Amino acid sequence: MTNDGPLGERWNFDKENRKSFSKKSLSEIPEPLIFKNDARAVMARLEKHKIKTIGVADDNLLWPIDKTQSLQLLGHFVNLACRDLAYIKMR
Questions:
Q1: pTM (2 d.p.)
Q2: What are the distances in angstroms from CA 1 to CA 12, 33, 51?
Q3: CA-CA to 90 of 20 to 30 Å: which in 10, 50, 51, 80?
Q4: How crowded is the C-beta side of 21, counted as CA atoms within 13 Å?
Q5: Are the CB atoms for 63 and 33 separated by under 8 Å?
Q6: What does the domain layout of the chain look like in residue ranges?
């Protein structure tokens, strides 16, 4: 910010960010790192105790559940982000 206003004299750049994806761009979206953690025991406890939840749950939890998986996901993200940042800088 400068003098109580945004740097560049504009608060947002939505118009510049509204470009649609091309089929090529969609195909370049990287595959996410998804885990298959068995959530059946947790689901059974929720049902047993009649705990209401939001949304629909699956028997497999795709998010990391421990430090090892969390570090794997972080590494996956960093590798993709670095690759994409290198691509942007080359443009």
A1: 0.61
A2: 13, 37, 47
A3: 10
A4: 7
A5: no
A6: 35-90
In the block, residue with structure tokens 């590494």: 75
* DSSP result, the chain: -BTTB-TTS-S--GGGG-PPPPHHHHHTSPPP----EE-HHHHHHHHHTT---SS---SEE-S--SHHHHHHHHHHHHHHHHHHHHHHHH-
Token pair recorded at residue 46? 């929720």
- Name which of 69, 75, 67 is nearest 35 in CA terms: 69
Quote the distance between the C-alpha of residue 9 and its chain's center.
30
